[in-house]
Structure formats: C-alpha cells, structure tokens
UniProtKB/TrEMBL annotation:
It is found in: Cell membrane. It comes from Streptacidiphilus pinicola. Keywords: Cell membrane, Membrane, Transmembrane, Transmembrane helix. The lineage of its organism: Bacteria, Bacillati, Actinomycetota, Actinomycetes, Kitasatosporales. The keyword Transmembrane helix applies. Belongs to the ABC-4 integral membrane protein family. This is ABC transporter permease. GO terms for cellular component: plasma membrane. It holds the Pfam family MacB_PCD. Residues 19-234, 492-694 form the MacB-like periplasmic core domain. It is a multi-pass membrane protein. It comes from the Bacteria.
Length: 854
C-alpha cells in the first residue's frame, strides 16, 4: 500500500509532465478503437441490409469458375417459375431481375452512380424489395418506362418525379421516367438503386422477356429453409445454385469482409506505427522523470526502500498513465469512428450512428494496448530507478552515463544496421519477387531497429554537422542550442527516432511512388503506339452500342477491340492453368508494342494461334510451335499453336497471352462472349486533334466511357498514385503528431531539468528573447536530426523496393527531390512549433527562484 500511495502521489504531483505522454497513449488507443468501432459499424450496416433482403430460399444460375465477363447478368428461364411453384412448401415464387453492370445517366447525361465504389443497381420492382425500401413519394412502377429511384441518389443529384433517366446496359440503351422515390428502411451503404417494371427490366437489362436473374422463394408456414432447399434441389436438378437465407447472408458477408478486412488491417497497421512512436515518447518521459528524481529516489533507498519497491513504484505510475490515457482514448476512438462515418457520408456512403457498434472486446483491446505499451515502455526507466543507490541522495540530480552500456549499444546498433543493409542489398539484387520481398521486410525491420539503437552514437556527428550548417548563424545562442542537443545523446536519439519512423515511411513510399510513375511513363513512351486509350468507368466493360459508336468515329486510321477471354490452358506437361487470354484485333500489335523473345507477335493473331509469356513458357517448358489445349469457359476447346513468346520485361499487359479476337469468337456462343474491356485508336497522321474531337463526340452519349490520349493516361496514373500516397501520408500524420508531442515533452522536461542553469544564464545577461531562441533552435536541430535519419533510411528502403519492383517491369528509379526538400522544411517547421510552449515557459521563469532551485 505504501508503494501504491507513493506512486499515486508522484503521479499527481507530476501530472503536468505526464500530460503529453497521456495524449500519446490517448491518440494511439483512439486510432485502434476508432478503427474497430468504424469497421464493426460498417459490418453491422451491411449485415442488416443483407438480412432484410434475403429470402427464405434463392434460386440463381449456377456459378461458373473463371466465368466470362459479358456485361449482361447470367439468367434463368422464365419457365422455371412454374416448376418452383409446384414444389411442396413453396408459398410464393418472386421472379427477380437485377444488374450491377448498367450505367444510369440523368437528363444532363451525367452518371448518377456512386463515386465511392458502391455499385449502381438496376432491378425490377417486386415484393422482396418492400422489405428494404418504402415508397415515400410517387408510386411504384406501374407502366413500361416507370422507374423508382432511391432517395439518397435523388437528393444528391437533385432529381425528382417526372425527371428522365437513361439506362445504358449490355443489350442496349433505354429511357425511363421517375415515377416514385424510395427510402431505405435500413441504411443504404451508398449504392445508387433504380427499380423498373418487370418487362422493361427484362428487355432492357437481359435482352429477353423470357428470362430472370433469380427466383426468391418464400417458405410456407412450418417449412424450414434447409428443408425447402432440399426439396427445390430435388425438383430442379443440377445446373442451378440453391441457397438458404443463411447461406446468402454468409456469402454476402464474406464478400463484404473481403473489402472491410484489408481496410481494417491497414488502419490497424498505421495505429501500430503510432503506438511504436508513442513508445519513444513514454520511454523519454519516464527516463527524464527518473533522472530528475534521483536524489528523491536515493533518499527512499537510504530509508529502507528496496530496489524492487522503487521499480514497482515507477511501473505503477506507468499503469496509472496507461489507464488514464486508455480510458480517454476509448472515448476519443468512438468520436473518431463517428467522424469517419460523417466523412464517408459526405463521400456518398451513408452510415448512421443508430448502427454504431461497440463490441465488448473493443474497450478491452484499447485498455490492454494502452496499459501494456505504457508499462513496457517504462520498464527500462524503472530498472534504472531501481539501480539508484542511497549515495545518490548526496549528489546533484542526474545519474552518470554508463560508458560500457553506451559502447555495447553502439556496437549492437552498428551490427543490426549492417545486417539490415545487407538484407536490403540482397533484396535489391534478388532474382525472384518472392525471395526478394522477404529479404526486403527483414532489411526494413533490422535497419529500423539498428538506427534506433545507434541513434545516440549518430547524434554526436549529425548534430554537429547540422549545427555547423544552421546554428552557427545565430552566434553564441546557436552554440548553446547545439550543446544542449548534444548534452544527452541518448535522449536526443530517442526523440529524433520517434520522428524518424514516420519520415522514413514517407520518404520510402515517395521513392517507390515516383519510380512507379516514371517507369509507367517510360513504358508508355516506349511501347504504347495508340493515340487514344478508351475505357469504361468502375471496371465495367464497354457496351456494344458504345463500341459501335467508337468504330464509326472519323479521322481514325484504325480502332482496336480488346477483351479478356476466360479459359483453361493445358500445358505440354499436363498442368491446367485457369487464366484469361487477351483477345484483340491484330492492330493491337501497333497499339501495344510488346517485345518477343521468340517469334513475331503478329503471328500470334493468325487463325489457330496464340502467344504465351516468357515466364510461363519457362515454367511449363513451352517452346515455339507447341500446340496447347485451350478450353474456353462456357465454350469449346481449341488446339492453339504457340507462334510467339513475349518478354516479361514490361509493365502493361505483363504476363498476358494473346490471340485474335475473331478467332476467339469461333469457340464461344455470342451470348457468352465478353464485351470489350478496353479499346485503342490511332489517328490518321496529322489529324490527332480532329480524331480526338470525333471520339469525344462519338462517346458523348455514354458518360461511362473515358477517352484519353497518352498525356491524359499518364496524368490518370499520376493522380491515382497521388491519391493513394496522400491517403497514406494522412494516416502517417498521426504518428508524426505523436512524434511532435515527444519533442514538446522532451523540451518541456528539459527546461524543468535545467531550471537552475537557465536562472544562472539569465542572471549573467541572457535575455528572454535569446533564451526562447535557444530552446527553439535546440528543437529545430533535433527535428532536423530526425529528418536526416528518416530520409536516409526511407530512401534506402525505397531504392531497394524499386530494384525489387524492377522484376515486374518498374525499372526506372526516380528520387522525388521536391518531396525530400519539403520533408526537411517541414521538419524545421515542426521543430519550431514543438518549441513554442517550452520556450515560452523558459522565458517566463523568475531568475531568483530558478537560481534557488535544487
């Protein structure tokens, strides 16, 4: 109890000095708990929607592995409805037509689909939908051409009853008029939903009034779902997928989980980085508090406290800090989750706080993370506190540095850094991506730990260099700042290491990102011969009507069709490989000039011919002239001759097999042939601008179609990568914020530690302004030290990663010097901001009281 009372007293007496460490714990725990609450809430939202919409039993077309992407949903014959109605236990059969492959445009020809990646769903209005939505304005589709639009999409695009919509689907385009507005009874996760009358939906989405996409069965009273499923299976035989409501829910939850799972892992990964950075802050805080209380601890030892009791007292303070920070972090995490929900709502994914899900495990995880991290971080300072002897009560505060420990630490740091550097070098020269990625991970880990351990050793050299470059301009005040930063290399190294981690990741990712863009640009300049690249949005295929309009555009030398045909290729060694073959018109060899290691690529477009990639050919011992069995999914099997083997040294279409699109059509029925996923066009020489205008005019009625010239395509790659990197930088900002708190805390505690010294300096003539400048310059040099370590480490990681990615065709190394410069300037600014409070506090000290301080 005495130890507990002592710990509680010390904690409360130093609560101001603990505050920033508590904030670091709070932020780390908030990120962890916020991620868990946010993803659990999204799961709850989707689960409610799935559970509400699932029928007792659903009959769908059989799932086909490696299916062709035709742009039109698979269908069931309308005649099946009568057979299902006769199954004992079926109370009702609801025919459904649903498509997620259509585009819906408003009267201004703007796509009204979600921008968050949620699908655009077009379906027939049927009784099943009344469980999920209700008509809040107008009426249900009663006549051909009537449509019901969900309320969220209507509000977003300012649409109402009487407005016209245009539906662009595989079978063709058609117009409908909004007759009603429907509001979701559960939360709509962001999908744009349009309901049509059944005949219109059948003809427009499926191209047939004698087909449906699903049949929803309602069970009669007393008939269980599993029982009804067994009866349906027996009645309809093979060739159909029959699922209970529970199975449909499980499948949909799995699909949702495949999206939410990685997102959750990524967010928790960044939370882990913030936690790691927080460790340095907490270690520094407790180390400095122990050093400042050396005389006090020595007196405790002199009057009978054992090492174990002193150790336990410090750890109990850490537990209190962890509990306080964690409890606050749990509350902040819930607020963060609500904020993320509001942000997603602004982007179009509607989540409601009514579904806010806080599982019992979430606060327990947050509390455990906060307390364990704090206690583990405090163990080393606690051990040092326990080692203080009673004689320390007779000395000035502070403990002498252990030279032997410093030498051991330096040796260990150099060895770890050297081992990590070796692993990075081996990764950069690896012959396979699988082996290289493992070496890269080991190299990153070892160099990171090595730099953290060797930081105090580097501080002496790097800070002196930085001081010579930046601080000497400020005369004696600059030299004082440099000496203060060098006074305790271990503390300076730990403070800089916290900042180093975030900046190393920023620098490494910048190198990789810049190299990816430079590589893609170089590959485009080298291999893409087409003037225009044409794609549909959201990964949808190009509709036949749009493709026809593109072919009819003027001022074009040629237009290339390209699609991916699903097939199973049997190699000469008997291996069966499910893959897709890039089927295109022969002009594709001009649009994408892929290198070959054997044969000519144009020969792969001859009837009965194909090409294979170099790596695949080596693995399966395929040579020029070999005949391969190619079984087209939902089609016939062909024997194709290998007329070319393409090089793996490419970014675009890497690893692709090629064949003539006209040849591929021979082996697939027309309704199973996939629509174009890309098209290419070349302008008549000297008519590029006229061709661009003609293509834009030809696709004006198809808002989902994007026509890009090579410059536009490069910009798209740059923008996509910039968006990804900016999102990563935003997540890394939390770690950098925690690191900044570490600088603030170190300086604040350092000011307290040097109270008497500051008083003496003021007494001999140092002005308040000079004192504040000294503290700010000390902060800047520590931040720049962290930037030097972080940028150096990050560039090493980035260069090694780029060399490894060169195996995938990304062979151009590009250093983003602008970003590196911004990192250094930003670090100096961070140093200035971090020093504002400590410098202000130092400047306000009373000279006489400061001199009188022990």
């Amino acid at each position: 109890m005495t130890v507990l009372r002592t710990s509680l007293r010390n904690f409360l007496s130093h609560k101001g000095r603990m505050a920033l460490s508590a904030i670091a714990v709070l932020l780390s725990v908030a990120f962890v708990c916020g991620t868990l609450v946010f993803t659990d809430t999204m799961n709850t939202t989707f689960d409610k929607l799935i559970a509400t919409s699932a029928s007792d039993v659903t009959v769908s077309p059989a799932k086909v592995d490696n299916a062709q992407q035709t742009g039109t949903p698979d269908t069931l014959p309308a005649s099946l409805q009568a057979r299902l109605a006769r199954v004992p236990g079926v109370a009702a059969v609801v025919p459904e037509v649903t498509s997620q492959q259509a585009t819906v445009a408003d009267g201004h020809n703007q796509d009204i689909g979600s921008t968050t990646g949620a699908p655009t769903i077009v379906a027939n209005w049927n009784p099943t939908h009344t469980r999920t939505v209700g008509i809040t304005s107008g009426h249900v589709p009663l006549a051909p051409g009537d449509a019901v639009l969900d309320a969220d999409t209507a509000a977003k695009h300012h649409l109402g009853i009487g407005d016209t919509l245009r539906v662009i689907a595989g079978p063709g385009d058609f117009k409908v008029t909004i007759a009603g507005i429907a509001t979701f009874k559960t939360t709509n996760p962001g999908a744009a939903v349009v309901y049509l009358d059944t005949p219109t939906a059948q003809q427009g989405l499926l191209g047939s009034r004698t087909a449906y996409t699903d049949f929803a069965l309602n069970a009669a009273p007393g008939v269980g779902d599993d029982q009804l499923k067994a009866r349906v299976d027996a009645a309809v035989g093979h060739g159909y997928q029959v699922q209970t409501a529970a199975e449909v829910q499980a499948q949909n939850q799995k699909d949702v989980g495949s999206f939410l799972g990685p997102m959750k892992d990524v967010l928790l990964g960044f939370a882990g980085i913030a936690v790691l950075v927080g460790v340095f802050l907490i270690v520094n805080t407790f180390s400095m508090l122990v050093a400042q209380r050396t005389r006090e601890i020595g007196l405790m030892r002199a009057i009978g406290s054992s090492r174990r009791q002193v150790n336990r007292a410090v750890l109990l303070e850490a537990v209190l800090l962890g509990v306080v920070g964690s409890v606050a972090g749990i509350g902040a995490g819930i607020g963060l989750a609500v904020g993320l929900m509001k942000l997603m709502g602004a982007m179009g994914m509607h989540l409601t706080t009514a579904d806010l899900t806080i599982k019992a495990a979430t606060p327990l995880i947050g509390l455990t993370v906060g307390v364990v991290v704090t206690v583990v971080s405090a163990m080393l300072p606690a051990r040092r506190a326990g080692a203080i002897s009673p004689m320390a009560a007779m000395r000035d505060a502070g403990t002498p540095a252990d030279a032997r420990t410093g030498r051991v630490r330096a040796t260990l740091g150099v060895l770890l850094t050297a081992a990590g550097g070796t692993a990075l070098a081996l990764a950069a020269s690896a012959s396979s991506a699988s082996a290289g990625s493992g070496l890269l991970a080991i190299g990153v880990l070892l160099t990171l730990v090595g730099f953290v351990v060797v930081g105090p050793l580097l501080a002496g050299l790097v800070v002196r260099i930085l001081g010579a470059v930046t601080l000497r301009w400020f005369g004696p005040v600059g030299r004082l700042a440099e000496r203060n930063a060098l006074r305790n290399p271990r503390r300076t190294g730990a403070t800089a290491a916290a900042l180093m981690i975030g900046l190393a990741l920023v620098a490494g990712l910048s190198v990789v990102g810049d190299s990816m863009v430079a590589s893609a640009t170089t590959q485009m300049d080298r291999s893409v011969g087409a003037d225009f690249i044409i794609q549909a949005g959201n990964g949808n295929p190009i509709s036949p009507a749009a493709a026809k309009a593109i072919h009819a555009a003027g001022h074009l030398a040629h237009v290339t069709d390209r699609t991916d045909v699903a097939a199973t290729v049997t190699a000469p060694d008997g291996t069966k490989d499910r893959t897709v073959i890039a089927a295109a018109t022969p002009s594709y060899t001009d649009d994408l000039q892929a290198k070959t290691v054997q044969g000519r690529l144009i020969d792969a477009y001859a009837p009965g011919a194909m090409s294979v990639p170099e790596g695949w050919a080596k693995v399966h011992k395929v040579t020029l002239g070999d005949r391969l069995d190619v079984a087209f999914t939902s089609g016939r099997t062909a024997q194709l001759t290998v007329n070319a083997i393409t090089s793996d040294d490419t970014v675009f279409d890497k690893g692709a097999m090629y064949m003539n699109i006209a040849d591929a059509r021979k082996y697939l029925p027309a309704d199973k042939f996939p629509a174009n996923n890309m098209m290419f066009a070349a302008a008549i020489p000297g008519q590029q601008s006229e061709a661009a205008a003609a293509l834009k005019a030809a696709t004006a009625d198809y808002p989902q179609i994007k026509v890009r010239d090579q410059a536009d395509y490069k910009n798209m790659i740059q923008q996509q990568l910039d968006q990804l990197l900016n999102m990563i930088y935003a997540l890394l900002a939390l770690a950098i914020v925690v690191a900044v708190l570490g600088v603030v805390n170190t300086l604040a505690l350092s000011v307290v530690e040097r109270t008497r010294e500051i008083g003496l300096m003021r007494a001999i003539g140092l002005s308040r302004r000079q004192l504040r400048r000294m503290v700010r310059l000390e902060s800047v040099v520590i931040a720049l030290f962290g930037a030097v370590l972080g940028v150096g480490l990050g560039m090493g990681w980035g260069i090694a990663a780029q060399k490894l990615l060169a195996l995938s065709g990304l062979g151009v190394l590009s250093i983003p010097w602008t970003t590196i410069g911004v990192v250094f300037l930003g670090s100096a600014l961070v140093g200035l901001l971090a020093a504002l409070f400590p410098a202000f506090r130092a400047g306000r000290m009373n000279i006489l009281k400061a001199i009188a301080t022990d």
